[in-house]
Design brief:
Distance between the termini: 32 Å
Shape: flat
Number of strands: 4
Strand order of the largest sheet: 1-2
Order of helices and strands: EEHHEHHEHHHHH
Radius of gyration: 23 Å
Oligomer: single chain
Structural class: mainly alpha
Largest sheet: 2 strands, antiparallel
Strand content: 5-15%
Length: about 250
Amino acid sequence: MPTNFNFNFTNNSVVTLELPFSEHVEELRQRIFLIVGIILLFTCLAFVDVKSLVKFLELPINNVKFFQLSPGEYFISTIKIAFYTGLLFSSPFAIGQLILFLLPGLTKKETKIILPLLISSLILFGLGLAFSYYTLVPAALNFFLNYSEEVLEPLWSFDQYFEFILVLFYSTGLAFQIPIIQILVGLLNIVSPKQMLGAWRYVILVSTILGAILTPSTDPLTQLLLSFAIILLYISGLGILFLIKN
């Protein structure tokens, strides 16, 4: 990515110098090392108090006893929890480093578009995690508990429980990126806002399919909740795109 430096002389001439490609590669390498270091730092901090994180993850469900299938299962699970927590909390810093790397090569118009989209993407991902934690996870787990009530005693493997909610967390966070994708597609004139509005029937169909694919559980309530959220996100993205275009 070229970074330009302008030098003004007395005769009003302008000389533009472009950094060599190797220097951009070196800058990118340094920023990647910095991001990896921050991720490791947050991972270590999360591992120090990982028991609080485990209790936080167990809050959406009650009356369930967790166990480990092997001696090291819980230990491996806590490492996973610490890593994904570190990844989550370091993501704003990673996006900041990406912005600092891209900024010199962007025009003012591109900067006005890309920076708000990156920040909005991060906010939407956080909202997706919150929606999953407070709505989807309790709905899915309570469905399974009520279904097996008076027949089976709920004894769940903690590692399998963590993988279940992890998939639900990140699939919902990715689904919440739909408005960002819509705005990018609309600004690039690949699909117009009117075409997006005219495809509402297909949106309902696709949202139903995505709700079934992205949710690790098979209960209809969780799938319907996610499908409804996808439709609302699509409508929100369409409304924002109309405002930008007009």
